[in-house]
Amino acid sequence: MTIVLIATLLYLTATGLLVRAVSRDDAIRSPAWLWPALPAMLLHGGYHVLVAMRTSGGPDMHFFAALSLVGLGMAWLTSLVAARGRMAALGVLVFPMAAAVLCIYHGYGHAPSKPLGWQLATHAWMALLAYATLSVAALLAIMLWLQERALRRRDFRPWLRALPPLADLEALLFRVIAVGFALLTLTLVTGVLFVDDLLAQKLVHKTVLSVLSWIVFGTLLIGRRRYGWRGAKAVHWTLTAMALLLLAFFGSQFAIELVFGRPR
Q: What pTM was estimated for this model as a whole?
């Protein structure tokens, strides 16, 4: 509990410092928020390692554990992007989210997991990294939509100053999508290679939805490259693909573990 409490306080401290820096348009020159954010993320990851050492089986990949790990991945990705002076405002959303899922994971409890060989472990970690990356892309898409909407209505609120120019935000969105798409591709490839029962009853819907999400993301990247898709169309395709991906993993895991109470 001490680790979780300290990590949560550090996440919230980083959020407060980031809010102040963004409001002053000083997040690049004065990245003080990084000092609490880095130990928060290290403690977050360390808590998962500690749980893995104290529970039998392989790494905890149940619903809330996976949710917490995705939150951790989003926090690291956000820090990398923000530390380079791009979209520091993203941390205002991601850091509290990471703190919340960590607390939920701690409160839910930790069940033993089935031992995983290196093949399945590779597939699982690749999937979590893909989800984290594409979740960041979904948040960027929402911010792009809000920015476009505000500019179209000439509603120049102070929060607009915290966002980069529209073209830069859009370019960053597609770069993140490209990275996430590559990770999702590797996830599907390792699933085909390493998962023996990929089309089993528990996995068929997950496989189908993941492939559909991959197709939508791939179509969006092709449309961007060949036809210059942007703006509202890019936002809609991104959020549609992300919704399919969330249903593929977290939707199925929620139903299997929490609704029906069955083990993975």
A: 0.86
Structure-token pair, residue 178: 């490209």
User: In this structure, how many other beta carbons lie within 10 angstroms of the beta carbon of residue 134?
Assistant: 25
The single-letter code of the amino acid at 108 is Y
- Burial (CB count <10 Å: 0-12, 13-18, 19+), residue 192: exposed
Residue 256, CA atoms < 13 Å, CB-side half-sphere: 17
Q: Which pLDDT tens digit goes with each residue over 133-144?
A: 999 999 999 888
Q: Is there a contact between 90 and 140 (Cβ–Cβ < 8 Å)?
A: yes
CB atoms within 10 A of CB 7: 26
Render pLDDT for 18-76 as a digit per residue (tens, 0 to 9): 888 777 665 555 678 889 999 999 999 999 888 888 777 666 677 788 889 999 999 99
CB-CB contact of 72 with 41 (8 Å): yes
DSSP state of 164: P
Could you give the CA distance from residue 245 to residue 188 in angstroms, rounded to a whole number?
12
Are 19 and 32 in contact, with CB atoms under 8 Å apart? no
